[in-house]
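User: I'm writing a tutorial on reading structure tokens. Could you give me a worked example: one chain, its sequence, then its tokens, then a sentence or two explaining what the tokens reveal?
Assistant: Sure. Here is the example chain.
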Amino acid sequence: MPRLRAALGGLLVAGASACTGLPKPPAPVNPVRVLLLNDVYVADTLADGTGGLARAATVRARLAAEGRTLFVLAGDVLGPSLLSKYYGGAQMVEALNAAGLDYATLGNHDAELPRDTLLARIAQSRFKWLSANCRSADGGRLPGVLPWDTVRVFGRKVGIFGTTLAGDWRAGTTCSDPDSAADVAMDSLRQLGADLILALTHQTVEADAALLGRQADLVAVLGGHEHEAHTVSVGTRYVLKADANARSAQSLAIWGTKGDWRQSPRLLPLGPGIPLDTAVARVVRAWDDSLRRRLGPDRVVGTLTAPIDARDAIQRRQETALGDLVADAFRAGTGADAALFNAGTLRLDDVLRAGPLSRWTLESLFLFPDETRSIVVPLTGARVRELLEHGLSDRNLGRGGFPQVAGLAVVAERNRPSGSRVVSLAGPDGKPLAAGATLRLALPVFLACRGGDGYSVPEARAQCEQAGSAPRAADLLIAWVERQPGGRVDPPAAGRLTLR
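And here are its predicted structure tokens:
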């Protein structure tokens, strides 16, 4: 559904829809056409019949029939997914090669790949990788990654550069301040005589809007990182993002002359009515067959009695049935008093339908290389409250750091200042959790040992030394499902995390 967001600095930030509600611009003459995807973790269609790189390739071919179209992807494509856990994103590159992708920028999850794996995927690509701010840990350029590039479209020189969220990613890729890198890229492309300049970014929508507002010569920002579609207007220019996993694509037509560019954005849902490109579909089928050979036959481990919405947009804003189910499994499987995990742990981004639950389906919830292992850390009630405040802060509300819990009853006010939103906190016994009480809390290794999503748990130092042998999240969840009476899994009742 379209949604509106409060704007910073007077900017209008709107969830994109097929109709932007803006006045229809004049018919474009020889436009520069761009087709954008972002945050695509699986090449196949989703369980609800939407998405799929084969559909995106069909749309790209239709646009290309009308004139040269730049097909771009704004980061996070090499993982995480069930296939990428075993093949390091090779299946995605092969599918994107077949789809005719022109440019991709690095997403934070791409930058987390082991260096040798990342470089192998870049070398395998027939499209170009862009990043003006990501380098090897030694400060050198990543082989095969350009900071910017130019291309001719209808006689116009189009400049395009890429940037990624700043971070020292664990596999040795370092991404410096994207704003400083964008300044250098803009200056360089001006000197190269670019008629119009595009940014291909992987950062927050607020950062994208600020970039566009700061750079008067930047025509548009084609972004990723958020998993929901956005159209952000900054005057007559746009920040665009599509829905994750190719549920939609953003199309942008740009025409006019230097200093007087006009734009027309359009969100394109990639639904079942769009036929599959045969070449890409063939690649997707071959990799699916490879996964079946690798994992062996699937098996049913339980029956879900009602549908569960496992889309990222839901998990990252509120308590959910899936979050409760997984947190219950963490708590029970580790013997902890309570459990807390970041919603970004869950990567299915789809709807679990009522009916049989298979081992593969549950494995597909946890797709990171560390297998989302869980450790138990003794913490005071005051520290548990601090972790919850962090998860409910402006940094994480609506993003991957949002908390899902078990064994706790939390009431929070979203309109209170960030860092002081928890108004009541009860422990496993239902009584208020005293600041000095000790609670054994199950946490994923990502949060407890690696500071994921900005969490800090120095108390976990000893447990982190044994993190490699901690139980896998998928095993904990499978065991929990199999222990339910008759194998029937009822979505847990809500009420453990109330955000008013």
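What the tokens reveal: The first helix runs from residue 53 to 66. The mean pLDDT is 90.
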